[in-house]
Amino acid sequence: MINAPTDQILAIGLISGTSVDGIDAALVEIIDRHEQLETNLIAGYTYPYAAELRTEILAVCAGAPRSLQQICELDDRIAESFAQAAIAIMEKGDRLPDLIASHGQTVFHRPPVTPQDGKTGLGYSVQLGRGAVIAELTGIKTISDFRVADIEVGGHAAPLVPMLDILLLSHPTKYRVCQNIGGISNLTYLPPKALEHPEQVFGFDNGAGNVLIDMAAQKLFGVSFDADGAIARQGQPNLDLINQWLEQEFFRLPPPKSTGRELFSPEYLEQCLSECQGLSNYDILATLTEFTARAIAKSYRDFLPVFPDEVLIGGGGGHNSYLMERLQDLVKPAIVMRTNDCGIDSDSKEAIAFALLGYLRLKERYGNLPSVTGAKRSVLLGKIYQ
Ligand SMILES: Nc1ncnc2c1ncn2[C@@H]1O[C@H](COP(=O)(O)OP(=O)(O)OP(=O)(O)O)[C@@H](O)[C@H]1O
Ligand SMILES: CC(=O)N[C@H]1[C@@H]2OC[C@@H](O2)[C@@H](O)[C@@H]1O[C@H](C)C(=O)O
């Protein structure tokens, strides 16, 4: 039989991203046909965090002081929520999954730097929701701690989703960018036939994504996000301010680079708001949305060897039609579409990516792309909890 599957497993991928809106769970069939991987999404769902747990996670992300005991207890509460999400999505399948791959919840991320005398330059990335608890509560083999090994070999450990992009979304003739717009935005640059030239693939975090829009929507309008961009659409962006903000160091830094809520923090928003004197609240949302779109578009012009033919959007930002319109205008003649148009559900993409990374770990195949993370070498990602 030609191209028969060499392997087929049922996996659950779990992640809560930097928006901290809830746990994205994906129940995925992974089909391996002689190194050519396919995924079939059986169910994808976001299980919202309990409000009090979300508030506590955001407080820790923002640097609120907590004892080690409190952090450990938070670790277990997050793991319990992840286990509940896994158990809930498991019911959508017709058999028990072979594997749970759980990213957990990032609460701290520090990119690597050049080491100084006697000081480490290694990055630091903390994901809570320990795999041991998920394995214990579900009875399913669980893989977690996906970022640690890349950090150990000098990498940023982020973004990791480019492995899914290279395996599932490269095109024979087109230059593609896979653009995630979650809490933070990040991209994968995929030249044609990327799978044959993995060293030419790179990716990096390229902006604030939705975090600033979300925080401003909460503070100025009392809503958790600007649904469909309806608020921003009513305002006028201030381009002078945006151009000034785009001069900041993060946007000028060449890849590899990664960021998080440590930079795009409540203090960062306060600084932006203090510079928005005289703008209406609608203008402020319009300005932050335009800033988000321009940071993304500028990163293509500044850092990509070839401007893309297609931009495939993943993440919740794809639901903000105003942000999408602005991005489409800014990256013409590239065509902006959602990954759904290429067979990958844009809301479940990160959860599918971790299911795939879990499968690679199980098969002892490398999960990181050194050309993306800046790691010294390829490594196995993730720790297995039986
Ligand atoms: N209908 C909508 N209109 C506007 N924005 C939306 C809509 N739906 C979702 N979003 C935005 O998407 C965000 C969630 O996106 P997503 O779930 O991709 O983030 P994440 O996975 O937590 O982040 P990251 O990718 O950085 O880890 C919400 O916080 C909101 O800003
Ligand atoms: C440390 C960390 O959690 N980084 C996230 C964050 O959220 C988006 C962007 O920054 C990305 O680099 C990464 O997540 C995705 C899942 C990734 O690793 O590809």
Automatic annotation (TrEMBL):
It holds the Pfam family AnmK. It comes from the Bacteria. It is an enzyme of class 2 (transferase). It catalyses: 1,6-anhydro-N-acetyl-beta-muramate + ATP + H2O = N-acetyl-D-muramate 6-phosphate + ADP + H(+). Pathway: Amino-sugar metabolism; 1,6-anhydro-N-acetylmuramate degradation; Cell wall biogenesis; peptidoglycan recycling. The keyword Transit peptide does not apply. This is Anhydro-N-acetylmuramic acid kinase. It comes from Pseudanabaena galeata UHCC 0370. The lineage of its organism: Bacteria, Bacillati, Cyanobacteriota, Cyanophyceae, Pseudanabaenales.
